[in-house]
From TrEMBL:
GO terms for cellular component: plasma membrane. It is a multi-pass membrane protein. Belongs to the HAK/KUP transporter (TC 2.A.72.3) family. Residues 57-539 form the K+ potassium transporter integral membrane domain. Its main location: membrane. One of its GO terms (molecular function) is potassium ion transmembrane transporter activity. InterPro entries: K+_transporter, K_trans_C, K_trans_N. The gene is LOC111287579. Residues 553-722 form the K+ potassium transporter C-terminal domain. This is Potassium transporter. The chain crosses the membrane at residues 56-77, 89-109, 178-196, 216-235, 247-267, 293-312, 324-344, 364-384, 421-439, 445-469, 476-496, 502-521. PANTHER family: OSMOTIC STRESS POTASSIUM TRANSPORTER, POTASSIUM TRANSPORTER 17-RELATED. It is found in: Cell membrane; Membrane. It comes from Durio zibethinus. Keywords: Ion transport, Membrane, Potassium, Potassium transport, Transmembrane, Transmembrane helix, Transport.
Length: 725
């Protein structure tokens, strides 16, 4: 067996297997009490100065708000309007204004951004936050509390007692499963949003070629849109910071130019448009149109599309920068742009199918077209970045197969990129454009995604208010009634469009949810087996007492993630190999939500009471370079192991053990990881057979190279762990 250390790999290029373990690694291996683990804190935290926030706010234009600020391209064309009147347009504008104000400003910018989970946003971040604070589910112990967000004192102050609702989730498995299903559905819908936003944004912008050039066919527009999207996805590997730096000037130009055109249109066509801000125009709209008006909500909801990215992209920036950019730039820009569009359509009621380009003055048509096309490309970035974020959260929480996640910044933990996810999104986006090229069909599908994700976020935020923030019941009721009713009406309207393209996100979400559930199911069965059959020190002592089991020369790193014991794979390993190395170090990797872990706290070793047997926990941050196959790593562990042994009472055997450590390193170093596989017994149910087989497919094709990071394939001794039904 080749025992040379493998090549180095940077930690940000992988997903650590131990992040999926159930709880802290070794119950008998602990850190010093009474103080926090000494971690190197990030240099770019939430308490950045005013100028840093202004710079970040500028960068958010190129990442966070693209989908939201370009929605005027497709909102009116997505509506099924039939001979609309002045009163109809005033009612529609009033609906859009109050939707932007209540959902955009109040719900997302003012409330949702405060419900982050250690700097991360999105539906799965809310789920993780709830699980950890209620101590339910396998994610409750995933992250230690040493990295609690210091910007949320309210959360710490109000967690002394548990609410009745929190106790219900702790005692009811049905409630926990319902919460998990809700979070999974929201995550899948957001990923669906990441597919549809690029498609509809770029297609709507490129459609502007057809008016000045009648010879340009619909097929040509679709092909050009597909080419533009492919180029955009190929740029993702450069990272959010670099992409946002390139894209922010484009979005700045768009955000400034469209409201200026809107102001011109208001003055030229309908100066009294802002009287529609009165809510009574909404009441009159529905009284006059009834069912027809309700159905038109399926297009109106698109005015707030991309708002979920405002929350999900939180990990890429910070709360202050996003709030600043939205309230002072994006929100007034949208209000003026929609006002200008509506003012034009009141005087030209039959131009609603091309409601954006028609209201652009001829003198600035081409500059606006160029800016619109570039802005549509940027708009795609917001949901692509959000998709990377939620995939990364799901992988870390072990609810999604392990895909490669690359941290593209050493300063911001939330800036991630996944090559596999990126190319899958690209294929789906191009397919949506080429197969469903009709803008109205994609708009119908888009409306389903937008409304359902917002409704799920409202439900999870309500739980956060009740269980974690302990908000007064009156305020919780006010929040829930307003937003659940408002978004519920939107959902009821868009569900009527299922047959007209609305089925697309449901198909995508069903596939994703099935993958997530299959992975979750298999991991749960694996954890159940490991916890039931874990090995303690007495069992290990008995195994080693067998005369046929030899202690062979060499140093062995045995990777495990079981708490309060050792993985049952160890017994299969010893019985199969009939040996254990003279120095065996059971190693667990522990993920920390900080850039770097201080060197003195990175590796903690304790002796397990048997000759040459140690437990080791390796803490690492997202920007740490970790080479588990290199000489530096092995030497550092040896140093810590010697220090650990030297603290014991001195006797000849212990002195000899210390002196043998470096000799065993010279003899050879191997890295052992047990690979899980399931045994399907005769009594296994058909459901278990199918789900476990599906998990095996996901595990074998999507697993990462760790824990044997950097070790060549021939050096990994893979031992099967059987699940006996």
């Amino acid at each position: 067996m080749d025992r040379q250390p493998g090549p180095a790999h940077a930690l940000p290029d992988v997903v650590i297997d131990s992040a999926s373990g159930n709880g802290h690694p070794f119950n008998y291996l602990h850190f010093p009490q009474g103080r926090s683990t000494n971690l190197v804190q990030p240099t770019d935290n939430k308490e950045t100065g005013r100028w840093s926030n202004l710079l970040l706010a500028y960068k958010t234009l190129g990442v966070v708000f693209g989908g939201l600020v370009t929605s005027p391209l497709y909102v009116y064309p997505s509506m099924h309007l039939n001979s609309p009147t002045e009163e109809d347009y005033l009612g529609i504008y009033s609906i859009m204004f109050w939707t932007l104000t209540l959902i955009g400003v109040v719900k997302y910018a003012s409330i949702a951004l405060k419900a982050d989970d250690q700097g991360e946003g999105g539906t799965f971040a809310l789920y993780s936050l709830l699980c950890r604070k209620m101590n339910i589910g396998i994610v409750s112990l995933k992250h230690s509390d040493i990295n609690s967000n210091q910007s949320r004192p309210v959360l710490r102050e109000n967690t002394r007692g548990k609410s009745r609702l929190g106790k219900l989730f702790e005692t009811s498995i049905v409630a926990r499963r319902a919460l998990l299903f809700t979070a999974m559905l929201g995550t899948c819908m957001l990923i669906g949003d990441g597919i549809l936003t690029p498609a509809i944004s770029v297609l709507s912008a490129m459609d502007g070629l057809r008016d000045p050039f009648p010879s340009v066919t619909k097929s040509l527009v679709e092909t050009l849109s597909a080419v533009v999207l492919v180029i955009l996805f190929l740029l993702q590997k450069f990272g959010t910071s670099r992409v946002s730096f390139m894209f922010s000037p484009i979005m700045g130009a768009w955000t400034l130019s469209t409201p200026l055109v809107g102001i011109y249109s208001i003055i030229h066509h309908y100066p009294s448009i802002f009287k529609a801000l009165s809510p009574h125009y909404i009441v009159h709209f529905f009284l006059r149109n009834r069912k027809k008006g309700w159905l038109m909500l399926g297009g109106t909801i698109l005015c707030i599309t991309g708002s979920e990215a405002l929350f999900a992209d939180l990990g890429h920036f910070n709360r202050s920068s996003i709030q600043m950019a939205f309230i002072f730039t994006i929100y007034p820009s949208l209000v003026l742009t929609y006002a200008g569009q509506t003012a034009y359509l009141i005087k030209n009621p039959n131009d609603h199918m091309d409601g954006f380009y028609k209201f652009i003055p001829k003198t600035v048509y081409w500059p606006i077209f160029i800016i619109a096309t570039l802005a549509a490309i940027v708009a795609s970035q917001s949901l692509i970045s959000a998709t990377f974020s939620v995939i990364k959260q799901s992988v870390v929480l072990d609810y999604f197969p392990r895909v490669k996640v690359v941290h593209t910044s050493s300063k911001k933990e939330g800036e991630v990129y996944s090559p596999e996810v990126n190319y899958i999104l690209m294929v789906f986006c191009v397919a949506v454009i080429l197969i469903f090229g009709d803008g109205q069909d994609i708009g119908n599908a888009f409306g389903v995604v937008v409304s359902l994700v917002m409704l799920i976020t409202t439900i999870l935020l309500t739980l956060v208010m009740i269980i974690i923030w302990r908000t007064p019941p009156l305020l919780v009721a006010l929040y829930f009634i307003v937003f659940f009713t408002m978004e519920g009406v939107y959902v009821s309207a868009v569900l009527t469009k299922i047959s007209e393209g609305g089925w697309i996100p449901f198909a995508i979400s069903f596939i994703l949810a099935f993958i997530m559930f299959g992975w979750y199911y298999g991991r749960q069965r694996k954890i159940e087996y490991e916890l039931t059959h874990k090995i303690d020190l007495e069992r290990l002592r008995m195994l080693l007492s067998d005369p046929e089991v030899q202690r062979v020369p060499g140093l062995c790193f045995f990777y495990t993630n079981i708490q309060d014991g050792m993985t049952p794979i160890l017994e299969h390993y010893i019985k199969s190999m009939r040996s254990l190395h003279k120095v065996t170090i059971f190693t667990t990797l522990r993920y920390s939500l900080v850039p770097k872990v201080a060197p003195e706290e990175r590796i903690v070793v304790e002796k397990l009471g048997l000759q040459g047997v140690y437990a080791c926990v390796i803490q690492y941050g997202y920007a740490d370079f970790l080479n588990l196959g290199g000489d530096d790593f092995v030497s550092e562990v040896i140093d810590r192991t010697e220090n650990c042994s030297s603290r014991l009472p001195c006797d000849p055997s212990q002195v000899q053990e210390i002196s043998e450590l470096r000799q065993e390193k010279i003899a050879g170093v191997i890295h052992v990881r047990g690979r899980t596989r399931f045994y399907i017994g005769k009594n296994t149910s058909l459901f278990d057979r199918f789900m476990l087989a599906f998990y095996e497919v996901l595990h074998n094709n999507c697993r990462s190279a760790l824990p044997a990071l950097g070790v060549p394939l021939q050096q990994r001794l893979e031992v099967g762990m059987f699940y006996k039904a």
